[in-house]
Amino acid sequence: MAPLLPPPAFLKLSAASLSLLAAGALLWWRRRGSPRRPSHRWVASTDFGALSREACVAAAVALRCGEAMRATAGAHATLKDGEGERAGIDPVTATDEANEALVYRTLRRAFPSHEVIGEEASAKLGAVPAVPRAVPTWVVDPIDGTQNFVHALPLSVVSIGLCIGGEPTLGVVYDPYLEELFVGVVGKGAYLNGRKICPDRCTTLEKAMVLTDVGYERSAQGVARISAALAALLNANTFALRMVGSSVQALTWVAAGRASAFYIGFGKKDCPKPWDWCAACAIGKACGVTFQRLDSDAPFDLTSSSCIVASTPQLAATLSELLRLIVRA
């Protein structure tokens, strides 16, 4: 007769250990499929100076928006076609609108003297409001990368920026899929989940990861310029080219050293608006990223319709020299 096998290891556990295992299994069963709740406690313990409270409030509401995104992405999203140039190409979803309403309520309750500008409210007005200099102004994109969002591509973020004197000063960007919370204040540094970030300091195209986007530009001139830019970068032996589908996410990746540069703005319909710039611009400037216009030598600001963003001034200069030839052609 074959010898008896020893009993499984778990049968040797004490009653107390088995009770703990059972409790853990029950907890897992109850929580399976439920939205995760990452912590933003590190924001309160980080020195953001005079904007510490603003950073905490914005981070908390950004995480709540992220939960809604995880719950409604892809097939669970309700697609609402926009009007005019937004129709079919630049979609808006019920989650966009619900997130923006939540951010509006939260910020106005916490900071009643501040102004708030949001992408969806501005779209309904049919205009892009000017960012006032006289009063602190929040600039909000409830979901940047909506086209990705409605296709369940995990490449979209919540973007909440604060302008002081008309300049991007505080940025909060949350990626609910990677659970990455970026917070930056100009003069105080930029952080990702509590860790200080910095750009990669690349100086040559041969070593650069360059990001871009085409937005919903479909004009003959715009398409020709976009194609010419890609060809010029490839002919210059650029290390890598990628399209993300979210300007805000691309900009935060440059700030975090995951990419070396980002450019956009060859046509009318690939031109980002203030909500595409504000939060990520503050985060980038907080850690030393270089911002320039693609279409002129004028200083970059929230009214810019194009940008070259690079980890170093040297790389920005190289990109400017290459890409401005296409704009001027």
From TrEMBL:
One of its GO terms (molecular function) is inositol monophosphate 1-phosphatase activity. Coiled coil: none annotated. The keyword NAD does not apply. This is Inositol-phosphate phosphatase. GO terms for biological process: inositol metabolic process; signal transduction. Mg(2+) binds at E119, D141, I143, D144, D276. SUPFAM superfamilies: Carbohydrate phosphatase (SSF56655). Belongs to the inositol monophosphatase superfamily. Keywords: Hydrolase, Magnesium, Metal-binding. Its cofactor is Mg(2+). It holds the Pfam family Inositol_P.
